[in-house]
Design the sequence.
C-alpha cells in the first residue's frame, strides 16, 4: 500500500501463504486502493507453473487523492517490486473492487486466446436510381 508520505510499503496478510484464487477477494482491502501480488499455480502439459499476477484494485468509494496516486504509481510499483523480489510479473489485472477478482477471471487470463477469422465480405452494390 502507499502510506501518507506517498511511500510504497509492504502490507501483507497473516495468511498470505494459504490464500488461493477463490479467497483472494477477501484478502484484498475493499475500502482503499491496493496493489496485490498473487502466485497463480497452474499445470501446463504436465508441468507445474507458478506465475506472478499483479492486481490493482481501486474501489469507487476511495478518496480522490488515493485514486490518483495509485493510478499514477502502478507501473512503477510493479517494476520496483519485481526488481526487489527478483521475479517477473506474468499478468496484470485491474478491477474497481476486490469482488471482481475471481478464480475464473485469473484462469481465463492464462488461457490461449482463440482468434476468430472472418472472411472478407464484399460491400453491397449501390442501389439503382
Sequence:
Amino acid at each position: 500500500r502507499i502510506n501518507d508520505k506517498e511511500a510504497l510499503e509492504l502490507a501483507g496478510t497473516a495468511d498470505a501463504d494459504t490464500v488461493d484464487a477463490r479467497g483472494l477477494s477477501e484478502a484484498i482491502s475493499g475500502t482503499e486502493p491496493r496493489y496485490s501480488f498473487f502466485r497463480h499455480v497452474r499445470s501446463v502439459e504436465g508441468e507445474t507453473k507458478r506465475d506472478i499476477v499483479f492486481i490493482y484494485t481501486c474501489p469507487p468509494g476511495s478518496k480522490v487523492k488515493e485514486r490518483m496516486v495509485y493510478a499514477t504509481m502502478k507501473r512503477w510499483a510493479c517494476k520496483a517490486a519485481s526488481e526487489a523480489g527478483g521475479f517477473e510479473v506474468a499478468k496484470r489485472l485491474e478491477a474497481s473492487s476486490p469482488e471482481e477478482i475471481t478464480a475464473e477471471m485469473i484462469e481465463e487470463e492464462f488461457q490461449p486466446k482463440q482468434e476468430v477469422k472472418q472472411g472478407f465480405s464484399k460491400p453491397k452494390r449501390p442501389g439503382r436510381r
Remarks:
- Residues 29 and 98 are 7 Å apart (CA to CA).
- The radius of gyration is 20 Å.
- The mean pLDDT is 81.
- The chain has three helices and three strands.
